[in-house]
Design a protein that fits this description.
Elements (H helix, E strand, L loop, with lengths): L6 E6 L5 H10 L4 E6 L6 H12 L5 E5 L4 H8 L4 E6 L1 H11 L3 H13 L5 E6 L10 H20 L2 E6 L2 E6 L10
Parallel strand pairs: 1-5, 1-6, 2-3, 2-4, 4-5
Antiparallel strand pairs: 6-7
Helix pairs in contact: 3-5, 4-6, 5-6
């Protein structure tokens, strides 16, 4: 079965294969390709990650670095003849929290931008709620905000894929769920 989607959310844990799948999906689309990166190279390790991600994309990709103004970037970059890949919502949320910005308003604006995207859009996000309860109030606030963000993004997207150990599991659209007493 093949699922065609205009807006796709790819979720998973660290090193689950979500970025690779998202890029593969985007590269199946015709037209221009725009990679919207939310990471900031604030330390050596992150700069190395960013460089590795860049090296995995060929010259057909345009890159936009957008650590905070993601809703505006989606409105600006999406178009019928262009696929936009956002990697990743988790780093965007972290940037918003650390900047002291209004997470709820930012999430609301982002959901509206995704729902109104003018062209194909692939979003990458971490599923962070499967592990231990974070030790700090900031960690717990982040985990809770990430869970709410993922739920709202999933509702705004036509398709949701969960990645585990490099294997994709299609969560949405899903066949209707029916319970029986027998």
């Amino acid at each position: 079965m093949t699922t065609v989607s205009r807006r796709t959310l790819v979720l998973g844990g660290a090193r689950s294969g979500k970025s690779r799948l998202a890029q593969d999906l985007a590269e199946t689309a015709f037209g221009q390709r725009v990679y919207v990166a939310t990471a900031q190279g604030l330390d050596v390790e992150m700069r190395e990650r960013i460089a590795r991600h860049r090296s995995e994309r060929d010259d057909s990709w345009m890159t936009r670095e957008v650590p905070l103004a993601l809703a505006e970037a989606i409105r600006r970059e999406t178009a019928p003849e262009r696929v936009v890949l956002v990697d990743c919502l988790t780093l965007w949320l972290s940037n918003v929290l650390l900047a002291g910005a209004d997470v709820e308003q930012g999430t609301h604006d982002l959901v509206r931008a995704v729902a109104g995207a003018a062209g194909p859009l692939v979003l990458v996000s971490n599923e962070v709620g499967h592990g231990l309860v974070p030790e700090t109030p900031l960690g717990r606030a982040f985990r809770d905000a990430q869970g709410r963000l993922n739920q709202r993004m999933a509702a705004a997207c036509d398709a949701v894929v969960f990645m585990a150990a490099g294997c994709p599991l299609l969560l949405k659209p899903a066949p209707p769920l029916r319970l029986t007493l027998r």
